[in-house]
Each structure stands twice: as C-alpha cells, then as structure tokens.
Write a structure and sequence with these properties.
It is a single chain. Helices cover 67% and strands 2% of the residues. The protein has 348 residues and is mainly α. The protein has one domain. A two-stranded antiparallel ribbon has the order 1-2. Strand 1 and strand 2 form a beta hairpin. The longest helix is centred in the N-terminal third of the chain and has 36 residues. The chain starts with a helix and ends with a helix.
C-alpha cells in the first residue's frame, strides 16, 4: 500500500511538472512558430536561441506590481484565475500516458486515476473552467472584461454540445467511457497498424471534436473572448502580475490537455504502429508508447499554433452560426451513421 501511494505521488508530481513545463515552453514555441511564418527570428536574447525566454517571462510575471482595481469585487477577482488554473490542471489526471510498467513484480499504470466514466469527468472539469473566465470578467467591473466573459460562456456552451455529440458517436462504437479502455481497444494484435485508430472509423467525429477543441481553448479563429481589436484584452483586461499569468498558462495547459485527449480518443493514445511486432518487454513497450503519445500531443500543440497564424478570426455571428447550424447537425448525422453501421456490422 505504501509503495502504491508513493508511486502515485511521484506520478502526480512528474505529470504536474511536465504539464507546467510544456505550458511554459509552449509560449516560446508559439513565438518561434509565429516568427518562422512571418519571416522573423523570434526570441533570441535570453540564452542560446532564446531558450530561457519562458523563465524570463515567468520571473517578470512574479515581480510585476500586483494591481487590484478599487471598483472590483476583490475576492472574486482573485478566485477567477485560480479556478481557471485549477480546472486546467485537474483535467489531465485521467489521461493514460502509457500502459503498465512492472517494478519488483508489481504492475503500475502510467495513469493517475482510471474512472469508468473518465470522459464524463473530463467534460465536467472542462465545463467548470468557464466559471474562472466568467468570474474574472464580471468581478473586474470593466465593460470590456464583461463582454469577453459573456462571449466565452456563450461560446463554450455552444461548442460543448457539438463536442459531446461527437463523443457520443465514439462511445457507441467503443462501448466504454474509460479513456484507458479506449486506448487499449486501438492497440490491435500482432501485425497491428494505424488503421486500428479511431480516427479511421470516426473521421467526421474527429473533425467536429478538434474544431470544438479550438473553441473550448479560446484559440484562433475562436479567440473572441480576448479579441484585442475589439475588447482591449477581453476578460483579463484588468489583470496583472501572476493573476494574468494564471489565465495565460491555463490556456496553454488546456491546449496541452486537449491535444492529449484528441490523441487518446482518435489517434491510438500510447499505441504506435507495429508495437507488438518488436519483440520487446512490456516495460520497453510502455516507455516507447509514452514517447509516442507525447509526440502526438506535441504535434497537435504545433497544429494549434499553426492554425493561429494561418486563419483569420471569425466574426461573432459566424462563430455562433458554425456552432449551432453547422457542427451540431453534423454531429447528429454522425451519431445516426455510427448507430446504423454499428447495428449493420453487428448483424453481419
């Protein structure tokens, strides 16, 4: 029991550290990707190739003057960014980062917790995250912040429906809500290949899910809640110092977790092509699987950044039309098609 608790504590600390490190260096990567696409150099002052820029930015946030507006609700003004950061970190505890490793004859899973309703937990935590934005925008007592918070809440409610419907189609096909079980189903057997991944069977569901993920993370072209050309800075206009840092880091953590969820649900999770044909021990397969998962996650993080500097921002009416008149009908159609083919193949 002590060994099990020790292992879980170590796993929590490792994943927590990796999540914060990825969030920090995603800011560096975003600036480098933007510089490359705009034919610039990007950060190059702090360390070789600007590699220490995230550390410099973090110290800047810590040492900046803390400003709380006199007209704000001071308690909620502090609670807002805390809720956003906490919910962002909570969503990653159910991601299966690998299969199992055997240490001293005991098998340990590279997953903090495996709930049989894992997808519902992730959706629940993500849904709570919008309260951090709403509380921060309302408590600032600033009209631009309030408009940003209202936009964020309406946007997330609209796109969570289509995302949930896309997941229903996947659940119909897999028959489980457990993220670990969904990953294991995509492993296949000896001679397995990439066609075992769910994206092959659910291409429309994947497309709907990833578009909704962009909207849920407030990423371009769905960054209306913090549209600087209209709302100054959106819901975090009045924030400074580490409170602003919490909002910015929470966005990158959400992007990292969303990429992990996409990789797990649709791209095999910790499985990779021909993994069962290598003749390696289970521990080595698990290590290589964890590396493969992180490679998939980093690809999707790059994809988030690539889209930001490629597609212009939608108007708000376009955003709502896409969610309600475009994605939701497509998601319902996808459920119908999935149900039909599931029953048809079952009779076969």
């Amino acid at each position: 029991m002590i060994a099990f608790l020790t292992y879980k504590i170590i796993l929590v600390l490792v994943i927590f550290t990796i999540t914060l490190a990825v969030a920090a260096y995603s800011t560096y990567a975003e600036r480098k990707v933007a510089a490359f696409m705009q034919d610039r150099i990007g950060p190059d002052r702090a360390g070789p190739f600007g590699i220490f820029q995230p550390l410099a930015d973090g110290l800047k946030f810590i040492y900046k003057e803390e400003i709380i507006p006199n007209v704000s609700n001071k308690l909620l003004f502090i609670v807002g960014p805390c809720v956003a950061m906490l919910t962002a970190l909570m969503a990653g505890v159910l991601i299966p980062w690998g299969d199992t490793v055997t240490i001293g004859g005991i098998a340990y899973s590279l997953q903090i917790a495996d709930l049989n309703v894992g997808i519902l937990y992730v959706f629940g935590v993500v849904s709570i995250g919008v309260y951090g934005i709403m509380i921060g925008g309302w408590s600032s007592n600033n009209k631009f912040s309030l408009l940003g918070a209202i936009r964020a809440s309406a946007q997330m409610i609209s796109y969570e429906i289509a995302m949930g419907l896309a997941i229903i189609a996947l659940i119909l096909m897999t028959g489980t809500l457990s993220l670990k079980e969904i990953s294991l189903q995509q492993a296949g057997g000896v001679g397995s290949h990439w066609t075992m991944w769910n994206v092959v069977y659910q291409p429309l569901g994947f497309l709907i899910f990833i578009v909704c993920a962009f909207a849920e993370c407030n990423r371009t072209p769905f960054d209306l809640p913090e549209c600087e050309t209209e709302l100054v800075g959106g819901y975090h206009t009045e924030y400074s110092s580490m409170k602003l840092g919490f909002y910015l880091f929470a966005e990158y953590i959400n992007m990292f977790v969303s990429s992990a969820v996409i990789s797990t649900l649709y791209f095999g999770g910790f499985n990779f092509p021909f993994m069962n044909d290598l003749g390696l021990t289970q521990n080595w397969i698990t290590i290589l699987g964890a590396i493969a998962l992180f490679a998939k996650v980093l690809f999707f993080v790059f994809f988030f950044m690539w889209i930001r500097w490629t597609i212009p921002r939608f108007r708000y009416d376009q955003l709502m039309n896409l969610g309600w008149k475009g994605l939701i009908p497509l998601a319902i159609l996808n459920i119908g098609l999935t149900g039909f083919f599931t029953l048809w193949l079952g009779h076969k």
